[in-house]
Design a protein that fits this description.
alpha/beta; Dehydroquinate synthase-like, alpha domain; Rossmann fold; 14 helices; seven-stranded mixed beta sheet; two-stranded antiparallel ribbon
Length: 354
């Protein structure tokens, strides 16, 4: 068993890397059980896949775990269920699933009775390396992705890499998009490791993934400890996301989050090249890595540029009607760039079409 400690002024917690059958889960739940009701939040397809320990705890609530149902209506349904089951301020939610389940459970726990405890049990690669760590929670509004949310840290994150063996290949790619983001924007050594291990990544080498997941969580821990509520350096974790969220919206979420981030990385890379902020050699290295990992790298022609720009303008990172976009400056380095002319963004996206 390995651990990473997220040290914060308040609400520090551990990310625990362990096999499910190690009894770590039961010990962790017991450690934070304050005597209130416990609700395990998951989704139906996971209940079929994992008839496991999590479902022994308290009541089971099943979300419709898709982006179109990542909504206030689903949150209200969960909160009404909690009231029905007589939950109180000593109650706890357990998020058992991927990023959508984790985001929604975290948000519900942040607002129920002004905040109750929750534990993250991520079952997807994307959730393990990114969304389960750092306390960002949220839901979509009709006007944009994750526009309602709260910073609410979990009591613990329990990550078992063996869940990856149950995932379809596309879900692995979904997580790889976020992993490449970490490497391109924040950690050159991780980028080098990915370049050298594409075969193992594509063949789902579990021991390799244990290393990679730990590396990504360590990067995110470092960033979150410096900037818990995204007032500064934490914004760098959004590399590829401003473009990516627009891709998700315009595709009606047929493109997964990680796939959209992958496309967004290419758009950000091409924009940085246009602005003279990084070298063509670095852009090509990134493109080559993404190709070897079978990640998408271009916008579809049917996605209208005006629609993409409109979606970007509704992104929560926009300030006073001006876009803030994270751009790479070298492999492992990135900056937040403001006041980029829309026409240059338009030209960049038109050049990224397949």
């Amino acid at each position: 068993m390995k651990k990473l400690r997220v040290e914060l002024p308040e609400n520090s917690y551990d990310i625990i890397f362990a096999d499910w059958d190690s009894e770590i889960f039961e010990k962790t739940v017991s450690a934070f059980d304050r005597g209130g009701r416990i609700i395990t939040v998951s989704e139906r397809k996971l209940q079929k896949l994992y008839p496991l320990t999590a479902y022994r705890y308290g009541e089971l609530f099943l979300l419709q775990g898709t982006e179109e149902h990542k909504s206030m209506e689903e949150i209200e349904r969960l909160l009404d269920f909690a009231v029905e089951k007589q939950c109180d301020r000593k109650s706890m939610f357990i998020a058992f699933g991927g990023g959508i389940v984790g985001d929604m459970t975290g948000f519900a726990s942040a607002v129920f009775m002004r905040g109750i405890d929750f534990i993250q049990v991520p079952t997807t690669l994307l959730a393990m390396v990114d969304s389960s760590v750092g306390g960002k929670t949220g839901v979509n509004l009709s006007s944009g992705k994750n526009l309602a949310g709260a910073f609410h840290q979990p009591k613990a994150v329990l990550a078992d890499v063996n869940f990856l063996l149950t995932l379809p290949e596309r879900e692995i790619r979904n997580g790889l998009g976020e992993i490449v983001k970490y490497a391109v924007g924040l950690d050159r050594e991780l980028f080098d490791k990915l370049e050298k291990n594409c075969t193992g990544l594509n063949s789902l080498d579990i021991e390799l993934y244990k290393e990679i997941i730990y590396d990504c969580c360590a990067i995110k821990c470092r960033i979150v400890q410096q900037d818990e509520k995204e007032q500064g350096v934490r914004a760098l974790l959004n590399l590829g996301h401003t473009f990516g969220h627009a891709v998700e919206a315009v595709s009606n979420f047929e493109i997964t989050h990680g796939e959209a981030v992958s496309i967004g990385l290419v758009c950000a890379g091409e924009l940085a090249l246009k602005l003279g902020m990084w070298q063509r050699e670095d852009l090509q290295r990134m493109r080559d890595l993404m190709g070897r990992l079978n990640l998408p790298s271009s916008l579809k022609k049917e996605w209208k540029t005006d629609d993409l720009i409109s979606a970007m303008m509704h992104d929560k990172k926009t300030e006073s009607g001006k876009l803030k976009i994270v751009l790479p400056t070298a492999i492992g380095q990135s900056v937040v760039q403001k006041n980029i002319p829309v026409e240059i963004i338009r030209q960049t996206m038109e050049g990224c079409c397949e």
